[in-house]
Every structure is written in structure tokens, then in C-alpha cells.
Amino acid sequence: MVVGMRFQFFLAGLFALLSAANSSAQQAQQVLPDAFGSWHVTGCDVDTQNPVLSQEAGEREYRQCQFTSGKQTATIAAGKYRDPSSAYEVYTSLLRPGMQPSTVGRFTAVDDNGLLALVGNIVVRVNQPRNVSTRDLQELTSIVAAQSDKTPLPPIREYLPKEDLVNATQRYALGPLAFRAAADAEGRPEIAGLTGAVGFAQGAEAMLAQYHRGRDSGVLLLIDYPTPQLAELHSRHLETALAETAKMAGTKIERRGSLLSLVIAPTTPAFGEILRNGVTYQTQVTWNEPSQTATDAPLGVVLYRIFVGTGVFMIMAVVFGVAFGGLRVFTKRLFPGKVFDRYERMEVLQMGLSGKTIDTRDLY
What we know:
Blueprint: H1 2-29, E1 35-36, E2 39-44, E3 61-69, E4 72-80, H2 84-93, E5 108-111, E6 114-119, E7 122-126, H3 134-145, E8 171-173, H4 176-186, H5 189-192, H6 195-198, E9 205-213, E10 216-224, H7 228-241, H8 244-248, E11 253-256, E12 259-264, H9 269-277, H10 299-334
Antiparallel strand pairs: 1-2, 2-3, 3-4, 4-7, 5-6, 6-7, 8-9, 9-10, 10-12, 11-12
């Protein structure tokens, strides 16, 4: 009876340990930690409003919680997505005009209403950034970065010209939903009409941004394809889908390799040309693998190598000859007639011209 009770206590303790370990593991895997710096979670929202593009971006986890530090409070949300490109799609969709880069990290934007941070494939939102110190926010992003994907971001974002760019108007799209949302954010409904002709099903990715210089303005649209052939094919589809009013306003499609660039309704054709020329994209075509060109060495070097090689072979011949001969002499002195020069094992053909038999010992 006592043994049975002990066994039950052992099972109960083991179950408690396993439950605690499982709970700790789940907490460690949470996209948003329960504590960072001097901040601690006080509650999490069950019915949270996820970003609109969550499904298209392949959302894997989303958590929104309230944190407190002394008398200060802040609402923080974090979402983990398929990869950094998908997270970048969500990050740009949440940008608001007037946002400025912050000192929290490289891919961050802040205004009076909140802070956005892109950490690998995780997007973090802080609704009251003024209540949280920069040091605590940096600690939060470092904790989140430990479980994020470190894959590089899409290179198309670097193709946008930096000059005259209206900050926080960049929009990245991997699918039709994000593309339409970007068109609405830019205030250009004619861009949404191009969604079916872009070719997202064939691996296209798009980047939009607003530009302003004096009285000139326009929206630059970049579409990158896996191959130049797809870019050429979809340029014709886009030309057909482009409204006549947009064409008359100066919208023109230009292809560079696998990249298409359009300036939607520029104020002047000259400004549209400036934006297209400012795209930092260069094509590189490689026909063969990298190789080296064989060159003949100078005659003096060739002769030197010949003499050195010949000398090495001569020295090796002498060394091996002396070694073989010395070994043979040493063996004959140590074991006479047992290893070498065994006359009893030697056979001699004799023509019989004389009656004297040849003695093989006379040969040594």
C-alpha cells in the first residue's frame, strides 16, 4: 500500500515537472515575451485585430498584450510571418505618412501614434512609444530577434531612387491583396486596376513609393520578375490594362532586364523620366563560369625548373641505388648464401663440350 502511494506521488511530481517544462518552452517560443527591461505583461487580448495582409503573408503567430512599468503602460503587438519578405510586406502596409526612422533599430519607423519595427520575419508594434525608453525597446527587439528568421530582405526595395522620396510611402507587395492596399494608400485607384496584369502567380513582386520635388510629384511603381522573358510578357499585359487617361498623363512602361518601372500620372513627362532614370538597377549577364587564363612562364624560369627537376631525380637515383646495394651487401654478410647467391638453387644449362661439370659455386 505504501509502495503504491509513493508511486502515485512520483507520477504526480513527474507530471508537474513535465507541465512546467512544457509551459516554459511555450513561453520561450512566444513571439512576444512576457517581460523585457522593467516592463511586465499584465494581460493579453484574446480577440485581436490582426493586420489586413496577415493571411496573404502567411501569419504563423500573433500576440497583443498590455505591459506596465511603474505607472507607465503600453500596448505591444507582434506577428510572425512566413519569411522576412512577407513580414516586410506587412511592415510597409502599416507605415503612415509622416513616420520617421528611430534609433531603436535599422528597420523602424515612429510617430506620435506608435512605433513599428521589422525584426527578421517578425513585425512589432508599440502603441505608446513615448512611455517606453529606447533602451527597453532595443532589449525587446533583441529578444524578438533571437527567434526570428535572418534571411535577407527583398532587393527590390534598394532599386527605389533615394532623392525626392516621400518617407514612409514605400509599399511592398507579394500578392494582389497587398498590391490593392498599396494602391489605396498611395491614393491611386488606377494602380489597383493593374492587379490582374502584374502576374503575382508567376513570382512577381512590386514596390511603390511617392516622390515630390517642388511642384512635381508622381508614384513610382517597380515590378520585378524571375526572368526577363516574363517581364517582357507582362509588360504587354500592363500596356493593355493601362488606362488611356494614364497614358495621356505621361505614364510609360520601361523594362530593364527583369524589372519594369512605371511612373503613374506624373505632373510632367520630364519628372517621370527623371524618376525612371533614377532607378538603381543594373543587369548582369554571365555566359561562362569564372576561369583563369593559362600563361607561359619566362624562359629563364623554365630552364631553372628543368635543371632543378633533373638534379632532384639524379639525387633520388643515387640515394635509392646506394640504399639497395648497401642492403644487399649487408644481407649477404649477415646471412651468407641464405638470401642472395644461393648456388644450390641455381640451374645451369650445359652444352656438354667437355666432360667437366660446372660448379655453380664458381660463379660467385
